[in-house]
Specification:
Blueprint lengths: L3 H10 L6 E5 L7 E2 L3 E2 L9 E2 L3 E4 L9 E7 L13 E5 L11 E4 L3 E4 L2 E4 L10 E2 L10 E3 L7 H9 L4 E5 L13 E2 L10 E2 L7
């Protein structure tokens, strides 16, 4: 009988490198990545709100109140700049309007018509804002060649716009189990023998 280490070395010595194939990203899970993946863009691509709340300019934080002049939903262009003393109702993932740099959670305000009073006095500039490129910046290495692709990696790669990637083709593995004492699951067990579960595990 040989050791596990010896058996592994024999396998390595008698196998050739796997072929590389290009597959749809969503079908690449549990494959080994055959190329380096670089970010083709900043992620996120723009400053956006991490919470449902109100976007405003932090220098207006100590005003008695702000005036809500509209709302921005996720997917809106948000190209109208805030003026001094204004705030915008904003939702998670929505683009921050020009001039705004902080978001107060909706649970931490009082509203009276268009008047907005901020009750959280511990806010800091930039609170509840995801900055452009804060996850990864354009050109940075996102996932390295040789990475074993799990669901999180697949989601990350897809979020950068990759619909196809190069992976190593999965090797074909056959396990041969021998022994007079072994019986297949489903057979009637004979005294002195054991059920062999190995074929069902691969």
């Amino acid at each position: 009988m040989i050791s596990v280490e010896e058996a592994l070395q024999i396998i390595r010595n008698n196998t050739s490198p796997s072929l590389i194939e290009t597959v749809p990203t969503h079908k690449a899970i549990l494959h080994v990545l055959a190329e380096d993946i670089f970010a083709p863009m900043d992620i996120p691509q723009f400053n956006n709100s991490a919470m449902d709340g109100y976007a405003f300019r932090f220098t207006d934080f100590f005003n008695n109140y702000l005036i809500v002049t509209g709302e921005i939903a996720a997917g809106d262009a948000a190209d109208i700049a805030l003026r001094t003393g204004e705030a915008k109702r904003i939702f998670t993932g929505a683009k921050m309007p020009p001039g705004a740099n902080t978001v107060v959670m909706q649970e931490h305000v009082k509203t009276d018509g268009s008047k907005l009073t901020i009750e959280n006095r511990e806010l800091q500039q930039g609170s509840n804002v995801r900055l452009r490129g804060s996850q990864i910046q354009m050109g940075e290495l996102a996932v390295s060649k040789g990475f074993y692709l799990n669901a999180a990696a697949i989601g990350f790669i897809a979020s950068m716009g990759y619909d196809k990637i190069s992976v190593y083709r999965k090797p074909k593995i056959h396990i041969i189990v021998t022994g007079n004492e072994l019986m297949a699951p489903g057979e009637k067990l004979v005294d002195g023998k054991f059920m062999n579960p190995i074929p069902l595990c691969y």
